[in-house]
Amino acid sequence: MSDSLHTQIDVKDGIATVTLNRPERMNAWTAQMGVELNEHLVRCDEDDAVRAVVVTGAGRAFCAGADLERGGETFAGGGASDAGGAGAPARPRRTIQPWEVRKPIIAAINGAAVGVGLTLPLQYDMRVAASDAKLGFLFVRRGVMTELSSTWILPRLVGIARAADLLLSGRIVLGAEAAALGLVNEAVATADVLPRALEIARNIAENCAPVSVALTKRMIWEHLGGPPPLEVAKREAKALWALGRMADAREGVQSFLEKRKPRWSLSPTKDAPEIPPIE
């Protein structure tokens, strides 16, 4: 994309390498980044020359979560599609979910991956992480909740009890523990993360039939059981939108920026927003 501001894409030998490219901000998420990443995935889905996709981060982080430049109003717009957005990025010509991309997507988690920086690669097919990378679903520590179908995907990866531990505590785990839990496929030295992800992609590109891969990927996601992930994502988005406009979302960000313990004020029995059931 000629107008890419926060990402880069390079296609070589059947492999598309997409890089989140805000290293000065540890690749903190913006609405612009989301639009660009979607456009790259659309391109990869539509281009038969692309056989596999690797997504990584520039510099020392994969993605440090939502950009908090708006302070307490960071989540007021509701989730990854808006968080940290400055201005109004162009609307995508087509929206695609990672599980709809007909090519395998491999996350090369080269450093810190927290918040949306972790729910994002959760939607991908495989994950390789640096052994010492810090990973965490920090949403409950910011007064909001997780998103991008993570309450649907994570229990299927690691089991209900482990998913509850990670999502309800918001604790940080290192890449090595994440591999032991099944959150990532494997943990390697930082310098080996991107080479290993490219090795996996290259093996698929060179040895596997593209249609077979596409159909197999589709079946993996469709046959996981339960409500389809997009329906879960819609429900999560509604909950996150509601929470993001409430006091605890502002307090979660402000306490982090002020380096103090948060002072939550909302009651789960009185203040929880009404979320409609899955249709």
Task: Give a summary of the structure in a few sentences.
The protein is 37% helix and 15% strand. It is α/β, with parallel strands linked by helices and 279 residues long.
CATH superfamily: 2-enoyl-CoA Hydratase, Chain A, domain 1
User: Which spans have pLDDT < 50 for at least 5 consecutive residues?
Assistant: none
CA-to-CA gap between the ends?
Answer: 36 Å
Regarding CATH, which class?
A: Alpha Beta
Share in β-strands:
15-25%
Strand numbers in spatial order across the main sheet? 1-2-3-5-7-10
Average pLDDT, all residues: 92
- Classification by helices and strands: alpha/beta
Shape: globular
Total individual domains: 1
Radius of gyration: 18 Å
CATH fold topology:
2-enoyl-CoA Hydratase, Chain A, domain 1
SSE topology string = EEHEEEEHEEHHEHEHHHH
Features:
279 residues; 2-enoyl-CoA Hydratase, Chain A, domain 1; six-stranded mixed sheet; four-stranded mixed sheet
Which secondary structure elements does this structure contain, and how are they paired or packed?
Layout: E1 7-12, E2 15-20, H1 31-46, E3 52-57, E4 61-63, E5 105-109, E6 112-114, H2 116-122, E7 126-130, E8 134-136, H3 150-158, H4 160-169, E9 172-174, H5 175-181, E10 186-188, H6 193-207, H7 210-222, H8 229-244, H9 247-257
Parallel strand pairs: 2-3, 3-5, 4-6, 5-7, 6-8, 7-10
Antiparallel strand pairs: 1-2, 8-9
Helix pairs in contact: 3-4, 3-8
